[in-house]
């Protein structure tokens, strides 16, 4: 069973004073910050392209537009861990992970966020639909799920040249925060390896 005391997303809607109480409680007990790491064994490019790749911040549903770590005790129930959070909002964190992974591939002259007033040769647009822990209905563990839908756009004519959805999962033996974060790291790195290989192949850099 889920042993953590969780903060419900519906709390503020049900009790008008709940948000203020939650804020006071959060101020009294600062949350630990956690970050995820880009994979060190991601695919490398077969050739380096003299092209620029811009990585946009993924769009995401409202439950993920926060630093809080999402856990679902039941399929339709969304709650947050009470003692830990991401170091940045989930979509921003995922953008940084994608950037680091593709930079390390050595497939492009430039990989980064959009420079002010400039355009890239390719743009990676994505939607982060899942970054959550799902508590097991029986037992103490959880399943971590990461789901990202990505599109590579050729910026010269705004043509979508490829699109794909990436899914990854990892098991956590418990619902303790450290175990869950380890599971998030495992699942996200698996997804990033697949994403990197696909982007390199799609843009002509090739992957090995």
CATH class: Alpha Beta
* DSSP summary, beta strand count: 9
- CATH superfamily placement: ABC-type transport auxiliary lipoprotein component
Uncertain segments of ≥5 residues (pLDDT<50)?
1-27
Radius of gyration: 19 Å
Beta content = 25-35%
Number of domains: 1
| CATH topology title | Rossmann fold
Cα separation of the termini: 43 Å
Description of the molecule:
This is Membrane integrity-associated transporter subunit PqiC. Keywords: Signal. Residues 1-27 form the signal peptide. Residues 34-194 form the ABC-type transport auxiliary lipoprotein component domain. It holds the Pfam family ABC_trans_aux. With 208 residues, the protein is α/β, with parallel strands linked by helices. It is elongated. It starts with 6 loop residues before the first strand and ends in a 5-residue tail after the last helix. Strands 1, 2, 3, 4, 5, 6, 7, 8 and 9 form a 9-stranded mixed beta sheet that branches. The chain is built from 4 helices and 9 strands; from the N terminus they run E-H-H-E-E-E-E-H-E-E-E-E-H. The model is unreliable at 1-27 (pLDDT under 50). The protein has a single domain (38-203), classed as Rossmann fold, CATH 3.40.50.10610.
């Amino acid at each position: 069973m889920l042993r953590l005391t969780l903060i419900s997303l519906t709390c503020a809607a049900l009790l008008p004073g709940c948000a203020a109480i939650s804020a006071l409680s959060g101020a009294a007990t600062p949350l630990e910050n956690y970050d995820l790491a880009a994979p060190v064994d991601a695919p490398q490019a077969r050739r380096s392209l003299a092209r620029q790749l811009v990585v946009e911040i993924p769009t995401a549903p409202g439950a993920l537009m926060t630093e809080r770590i999402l856990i679902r005790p039941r399929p339709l129930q969304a709650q947050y861990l009470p003692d830990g959070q991401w170091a940045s909002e989930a979509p921003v964190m995922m953008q940084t992970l994608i950037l680091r992974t593709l930079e390390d591939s050595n497939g492009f002259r430039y990989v980064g966020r959009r420079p002010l007033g400039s355009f890239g040769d390719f743009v990676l647009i994505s939607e982060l639909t899942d970054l959550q822990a799902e508590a097991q209905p029986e037992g103490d563990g959880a399943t971590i799920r990461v789901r990202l839908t990505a599109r590579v756009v050729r910026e010269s004519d705004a043509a979508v040249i490829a699109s794909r959805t990436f899914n990854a999962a990892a098991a956590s033996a418990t619902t303790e925060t450290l175990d869950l974060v380890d599971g998030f790291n495992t699942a996200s790195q698996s997804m990033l390896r697949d994403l990197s290989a696909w982007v390199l192949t799609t843009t002509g850099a090739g992957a090995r």
